[in-house]
Design a protein that fits this description.
- This protein is mostly helical.
- The chain is about 65% helix and about 0% strand.
- The protein has 20 helices and two strands.
- A two-stranded antiparallel ribbon has the order 1-2.
- β1 and β2 form a beta hairpin.
- α12 runs antiparallel to α13 (about 330-345) and α12 runs parallel beside α14 (about 355-375).
- The radius of gyration is 36 Å and the shape is elongated.
Length: about 500
């Protein structure tokens, strides 16, 4: 024992402060350990350091001891235990705080608790209670981490990725998805790995990275093929995302197969209303590609599915889809009949399920077009007025442009050339400020304006307008390919 300044009376207050400091540090370290955090003990010698930072101060090293601390003796470390300080007035050794996480055994009880938390989180997430679901899944992840249960960790990370996807937080979702794939990639559970890849693909899709999203979907398909018994819901989700990526990339024909497959999987899973929505989406793609007959067949499949749906909104959606197909085929009478049936089904909707204003506006617009096609120009004014009001309420410039164009056609049918030209010009102005523009609609409106000008004797203006849109069919890069519009222009 080395004794310094025996005759100096120790200062009690400083000693108490030192003891309190040591007790506080020990409590803090224990708290950090409980929370699962790693604490690094820089020194166990209360501020005494060796010249070499890699070597602790040993018994043979001389250093200055403050006189207020009294007699200090340095205790050599016992085998398997760190060296510490022992004050003569307060005997005891400073123990090293363990920093390793205690391992939780994988017992049936602990595994059951994880699965219970996972199911509770899924139920909360399905009830649009994302915050509560996140808490459940985080707790389950913590248990899986303590048990070193890799599959459980990966599943909870995938679930948390879904939470962030629902919030539109794609960067966080990407981080969770990538970590889930890294963990599940080392396991043999290909089903969970496929789900993680699908979630990560959605995150990439939200970050406008269609290429990486496509790569993850391709790998997810391989994972599902390896499993062989994938649920219909998982397959529907995968094919829906594949279709979304292809649509985003402008590959309309390629997306059709995935949209139709998704609708089939949803039917197998009993989700008939969602299946109707996918059938309607594939019908819209077909109409855009000019495949009118095939579109009508797909719309009839949607109607057959809607009859099995318990959702009262399924029938109006399917009937409106069929009506649009008939209108594109030039069968205006059948289109009008289906629109009227659609209105009857819409009237049956419960008060707690009102039709959205934008959907109602499009329905009124389609009905008005069918009336115009059948020659009922005066009757078309009322649904056009309703559609215009709803489109304004929803700030839909493209919808207002279509309604103004239809009103121009109505006025022109009565020989009101000046009024018709005002509506056509207004339609062009609205289209120019629309977020989603349609070159076909712009060309059609310009053709109508030119026709009204020609009938009003303004041939020069009509010629200039037609010449301005003719360039769309003759340009070198991405020319407009629509023979009907081109012939009308010529």
């Amino acid at each position: 024992m080395l004794t310094l300044r025996k005759n100096v009376q120790p200062v009690r207050s400083l000693e108490v402060k030192l003891l309190r400091h040591l007790e506080l540090r020990e409590k803090t370290m224990k708290k950090l350990t409980t929370l699962g955090l790693t604490a690094l003990l820089l020194s166990t010698t209360c501020g005494a350091y060796a010249d070499d930072a890699q070597k602790p101060v040993g018994p043979a090293k001389e250093f200055v001891i403050p006189p207020q601390l009294g007699d200090i003796k340095i205790k050599t470390a016992e085998p398997g235990r760190p060296a510490g300080l022992e004050n003569m007035m307060t005997p005891g050794t400073i123990q090293q705080v363990p920093t390793a996480m205690p391992e939780l055994p994988q017992t049936p009880e602990s595994m059951e608790k994880v699965h219970k938390l996972e199911k509770e989180g899924e139920k909360l997430f399905g009830s649009n209670m994302a915050d509560q679901a996140l808490i459940k899944w985080q707790e389950a992840y913590g248990l899986c981490l303590e048990m070193k249960y890799a599959e459980g960790q990966g599943r909870q990370l995938t679930n948390m990725c879904r939470i962030f996807l629902s919030r539109g937080q794609y960067v966080k979702a990407k981080y969770m998805g990538e970590n889930a794939i890294e963990i599940l990639g080392e396991t043999s559970n290909k089903a969970d790995l496929g789900k993680a890849r699908v979630a990560l693909a959605q995150a990439y899709f939200g970050l406008d990275n269609s290429v990486w999203a496509g790569n993850q979907l391709e790998l997810a398909l391989k994972n599902y093929q390896e499993v062989g018994n994938t649920s219909a819901t998982d397959s529907a989700q995968l094919t829906a995302i594949c279709a979304g990526v292809l649509l985003r990339m402008g590959k309309l024909k390629e997306s059709l197969m995935f949209l139709q497959s998704c609708a089939t999987y949803l039917e197998q899973g009993g989700e008939y209303h969602s299946s109707v929505a996918k059938r309607v989406a594939s019908t819209s793609v077909m109409l855009g590609l000019g495949l009118y007959t095939a579109a009508l067949e797909e719309a009839n499949r949607a109607l057959a599915t809607a009859r099995n749906s318990k959702n009262p909104a399924s029938m109006p959606v399917a009937l409106a889809c069929i009506a649009n197909c008939y209108y594109c085929l030039g069968e205006y009478g059948n289109a009008l009949r289906n629109f009227e049936e659609c209105f009857k089904e819409t009237a049956k909707l419960p008060e707690k399920m009102p039709m959205p204003d934008l959907s109602r506006a499009n329905l009124e617009l389609g009905y008005a077009h069918s009336l115009i096609g059948c020659g009922y120009y005066e009757q078309a004014r009322s649904p056009l007025a309703k559609a215009t009001e709803l489109f304004k309420k929803e700030s839909s410039a493209i919808g207002q442009a279509q309604a103004s164009n239809a009103l121009g056609v109505v006025e022109e049918s009565f020989g009101n050339h000046e009024k018709a030209m005002v509506h056509f010009q207004q339609a062009l102005d609205l289209h120019s400020v629309a977020n989603q523009k349609s070159e076909k609609l712009q060309i059609a409106i310009t053709q109508n304006l030119a026709a009204a000008e020609s009938r009003a004797g303004k041939n020069t203006e009509a010629k200039l307008h037609l010449a301005s849109i003719m360039a769309a069919f003759t340009r070198a890069k991405n020319p407009m390919e629509d023979q009907l519009l081109e012939c009308r222009t010529m």
